[in-house]
Amino acid sequence: MExxxxxxxxxxxxxxxxxxxxxxxxxxxxxHGLLVLNLxxxxxxxxxxxxxxxxxxxxxxxxxxxxxxxxxxxxxxxxLMGRGAPVVQIVTGGCCHLDxxxxxxxxxxxxxxxxxxxxxxxxxxxxxxxxxxxxxxxRVVLLSVTEGDDKPLKYPTMFRKxxxxxxxxxxIAEAVGADLPALRENIRRTAPTAMVLEVSARSxxxxxxxxxxLQQRRSGFxx
Amino acid sequence: MHxxxxxxxxxDLAFARLPSGSATRVVRLRLRVGVLAGVVPEALTFAFEAMxxxxxxxxxxxxxxxxxxxxxxxxxxxxxxxxxxPAPCPKCGSWASDVRQGHELDLMLVEFAAENLTTDxxxxxxxxxxxxxx
Lengths: 223, 134
Known about the structure:
The structure holds 2 protein chains of 2 kinds.
Chain A: E1 3-13, H1 16-31, E2 35-40, H2 47-57, E3 64-70, H3 75-80, E4 87-91, H4 100-107, E5 117-121, E6 138-144, H5 151-154, H6 156-160, E7 164-168, H7 180-190, E8 195-198, H8 207-219
Parallel strand pairs in A: 2-5, 2-6, 3-4, 3-5, 6-7, 7-8
Chain B: H1 3-15, E1 25-34, H2 41-51, E2 61-67, E3 70-73, E4 79-80, E5 97-101, E6 105-115, E7 130-132
Parallel strand pairs in B: 1-2
Antiparallel strand pairs in B: 1-6, 3-4, 3-5
């Protein structure tokens, strides 16, 4: 029996489908004049705490919507509700990252026209979410002062793609003996052009700069 | 670890090119994975071996071509191949660089095989080059 063999040269990006869907999301967001942020960090760095505080403090100033990704529970969505902003929980069912199709689905649960700013809290993970464009305008990577100053060097792919790096839990930096100069230098090495903010969602330290950034970026969009 | 979902994309792209109605098999897949792609080749291979049974790729081999990093210094400017990442420019010491090469995550080629193929395999699919062995 004759076996025929042939080769097909595909040369196609494996995440090409996600990139296409992300472009479609981005187009849709821009048609609604919506600024979109993708918030990324390890578990426990304080993404939800920063969002809680942001929703409280910007209530009445910016119309904010939130999509929050988690492997299993809807705990984060429940924490964020009741603050005047629509919140949609995306339960990934064990998947370690959000992708553009999950965002497209969640978008259906919002009236995007009624929003100025969409904050997407990704699954807590410094590896996989780096590879998935969601259609955001700004990538924000958070790390807390308790995580070790060499974290950016350990996860350079994530930090390299950051537009903004937020150092969180600054109110306890001294108590936990954080080496802030080393941390800042390691961020500079992995994300040399990123804007760096140092905040505490608990004490409010540094938050005005974060809010200024959000409002300035949003003001560049059509009303 | 998202290597399983990436491997699913590999299978989807490969199986979409199977000629319909024939007992064609996939016998080889070649990926190109940059060292900065955030993907571990060993985990890809593990996912491949775990997922291929009972598919048209049940007997296929996976080849993973690693692509080293090549950075472009924004301040010099010059290109350099770092031994690890991140790394400063060897000429001027700047850490500000763009990745020229190393973030690839592509399906390069698929090799198919079929016994007693009655219908011809397609000569071209969307401009993709097909090499006939026989």
